[in-house]
Specification:
298 residues, alpha+beta, six-stranded antiparallel beta sheet, two-stranded antiparallel sheet, 8 strands, 14% strand
């Protein structure tokens, strides 16, 4: 039995090992940090091997979801503060996230740990203060659960060549017999938090001639991060690297100024080099004439 646990630990470490972060300069992390609200959901483009599996199955770049619970100093319930202090011994004014991680279970981490990641913020619509407190209480009370999990059969699904299956079959097969490790990888924990107040995370739309259109709540058996991104119950909140309201009376296209694209293909963010006067002959392509919108006019 100990041998199986050691093998599972090795596999989990291998699956969760990440590479160097990429530059995503088109998003202002500091602005997002100060404007987040409790119960906002952060979708993350992970960089580990297990993230690649989730991305392949869902055909989405988002492979991880975390629930923002705010700062401990802003939580009024003293019992919740005590639980949080048991799992996090940092400053009282640190913005915190509740999330489920492979090998760690449901845990708590500072928002700053995702500073260099590609993030999308999804904000639930029409939540009142009581519902926010209920979701936060449910999330905090779940801290420490789903820890461990040495089910090797559950881990083997992350080694399956999912690219060989038709896309329409991947999600159905992946959801089948999902164990604790699979639930920790996906957005199941976030779905359970919102399911506690019967919030329609991703409703089933049913149309009939008698009752018209009905929205039925799905059971959060296994929620993938892309489903939160597509959910009509959430709105996407963007924090660009510049304030577009400053330029709302100006025409930003066509671009003005001088600049050069870094040459990296299929990147989600652009890295600019201003002040480049001449490009090498190999870089003189039609895609090189990309200029940042905040360049000085000619």
């Amino acid at each position: 039995m100990q041998l199986l646990r050691n093998l599972a630990t090795f596999i989990i470490h291998w699956l969760t090992k990440t590479g160097e972060p990429k530059d995503h300069g088109l998003s202002d992390f500091e602005k997002m940090r100060f404007e987040l609200k409790p119960c906002d959901v952060l979708l993350v483009q992970g960089r580990g091997r297990v993230d690649k599996v989730i991305q392949s199955i869902s055909q989405s770049i988002w492979s991880h979801a975390a629930l923002y619970i705010g700062r401990p100093m802003d939580i009024e319930d003293q019992d919740l503060k005590t639980i949080i202090q048991h799992f996090y011994q940092g400053p009282n004014d640190t913005p915190l996230l509740a999330e489920s991680k492979l090998g760690e279970g449901i845990t708590i981490k500072p928002l700053l740990s995702y500073e260099h990641e590609h993030i999308r913020v999804c904000r639930p619509k029409s939540l009142n203060e009581k519902q926010i407190q209920q979701i936060t209480r449910f999330a905090v009370n779940r801290l420490g659960s789903h820890r461990g999990g040495s089910n090797l059969f559950d881990l083997l699904r992350f080694f399956f060549p999912w690219g060989l299956l038709p896309f329409r079959w991947r999600r159905a097969v992946f959801r089948h017999w999902a164990g604790r490790n699979t639930r920790n990888v996906t957005a199941a924990f976030v779905a359970e938090c919102f399911g506690f107040i019967q919030f329609p995370l991703y409703p089933l739309v049913k149309t009939s001639s008698e009752q018209g259109v009905q929205l039925l709540r799905r059971h959060p058996k296994l929620c993938l991060p892309y489903e939160i991104d597509l959910s009509p119950s959430f709105e996407v909140v963007k924090y660009p690297f510049i304030d577009f309201q400053v330029y709302e009376n100006e025409r930003l296209i066509p671009w003005k100024g001088s600049g050069a694209y870094s040459g990296m293909e299929q990147e989600s963010a652009l890295v600019y080099q201003s002040g480049v006067k001449k490009l090498d002959s190999q870089e003189e392509t039609s895609e090189s004439n990309i200029t940042p919108i905040n360049s000085k006019p000619d």
